[in-house]
């Protein structure tokens, strides 16, 4: 991010407590267009909490979240039209085919007459073209994960938020995922992801933040930061 350039997303000293439990201690980060920040840490370290706050889906106990300089709330128009969040595998519609599900998502987010082409492109990118007529329940776990990624690709997006997108993917599919995220960055899409895989972070991230018990224990360029925790 150049001097004077406004960040796309800025989290300033955000924290989150649930009663007496402090799930996330104050964290600050900024993301510019085409930049990727990866969050690493064990389960329960605060990664998902931080992602929900960044997406406007949870309100921080303290601190603030801004998108292009304006406060970000879940009901903000940009949360629907510019921020794409990968859903959980269980959020699919069991009675709709893969293609029908993606068409519904595309139309719901304003694709209009371009929806069929957008869906075909997402199916091809996620290597699901041969499974377009299948029901989600007939897919393997890796294919269901790919379907969730396809559901993100049919949406308009300037900010892409992914919670462990490598789950259920084999090593070859993880390499494909890394390539996909690099291409998204090249298009100017900003990426914020949580991952357990240091290799994925090294392949796509410009900065890594390592969390433990809700606290930042490391941050910086991937090679430098990950080298210190291996």
Description of the structure:
This protein is of the alpha/beta class. It folds into two domains: 1-82 and 159-230, 3-Layer(aba) Sandwich (Rossmann fold), CATH 3.40.50.300; 91-156, no CATH class. Helices cover 34% and strands 26% of the residues. The protein is built from eight helices and ten strands. Strands 6-7-8-3-9-10 form a six-stranded mixed beta sheet, with helices on both faces. A hairpin with a 2-residue loop joins strand 4 (62-67) and strand 5. The longest helix is centred in the C-terminal third of the chain and has 16 residues, at 171-186. It is globular and about 45 Å long. The model has no long low-confidence stretch (mean pLDDT 91).
């Amino acid at each position: 991010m150049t001097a004077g350039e406004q960040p796309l997303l800025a989290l300033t000293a955000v924290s989150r407590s649930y009663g007496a439990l402090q799930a996330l201690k104050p964290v600050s980060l900024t993301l510019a267009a085409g930049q990727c920040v990866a969050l690493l840490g064990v389960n329960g370290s605060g990664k998902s909490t931080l992602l929900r706050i960044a997406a406007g889906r949870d309100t921080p106990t303290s601190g603030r979240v801004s998108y292009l300089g304006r406060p970000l709330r879940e009901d903000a128009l940009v949360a629907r039209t510019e921020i794409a969040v990968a859903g959980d595998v269980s959020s699919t519609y069991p009675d709709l085919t893969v293609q029908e599900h993606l068409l519904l998502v595309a139309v719901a987010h304003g694709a209009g007459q371009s929806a069929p082409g957008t869906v075909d492109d997402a199916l091809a990118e996620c290597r699901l073209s041969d499974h377009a007529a299948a029901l989600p329940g007939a897919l393997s776990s890796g294919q269901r994960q790919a379907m969730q990624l396809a559901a993100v690709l049919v949406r308009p997006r300037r900010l892409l938020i992914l919670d462990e997108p490598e789950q259920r993917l084999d090593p070859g599919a993880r390499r494909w995922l890394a390539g996909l995220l690099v291409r998204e960055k090249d298009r100017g899409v900003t990426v914020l992801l949580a991952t357990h895989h240091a290799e994925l972070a090294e392949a796509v991230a410009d900065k890594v933040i390592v969390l433990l018990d809700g606290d930042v224990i490391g941050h910086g360029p991937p090679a430098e930061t990950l080298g210190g925790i291996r």
